[in-house]
Amino acid sequence: MNNKQTILVWDVPIRVFHWLLVICFAGAWLTSESERLQMIHYAFGYSAVALVLFRLVWGFIGTKYARFHQFIKGPKEMIAHAKGLLGGHQHIMPGHNPVGGIVMLGLMLVILLIGLTGYWTVKEFLGDFMSGAHEAIASLALGLVIIHIAAAVIMSLLQKENLVLAMMNGKKMGYLNKQFDFLSI
Prior knowledge:
The chain has 185 residues and is mainly alpha-helical.
């Protein structure tokens, strides 16, 4: 193992994506019930979709830790990671852990579904059904956001590192293990 060091994990495009998505989601949620702010609601919603589409592309062509193959793992790795956490053993990985990575993809998918159902609601496709679907999926997304925030707080405590700050400056502390290419404490 090398000496503990600061490692740039989240590049500028990822951090900008993350915080703009926070603003767009919150803005869309807060303007959702106002007819007067309907156009602002649309702008927030479509901007969120555009951000997710950017992130999907960046997941294939972006920097090392932005790429999906770096953190999207199969069920075996997700279960092993979850068992490790429950057993008090953890491997702190750059970016998202295997469970966090799949949740991130799920959240992006849900945001795309919100945008699609919102568009279909505006176009009056399937009437009230689509409007109800749009609201239900948005509520599901809010639940996932709450879980995401809770997980960030819990993992910050477990790892003894402020992950919110890490998402602002892009850096995490740890030992860079060249052989396995993960951070460990």
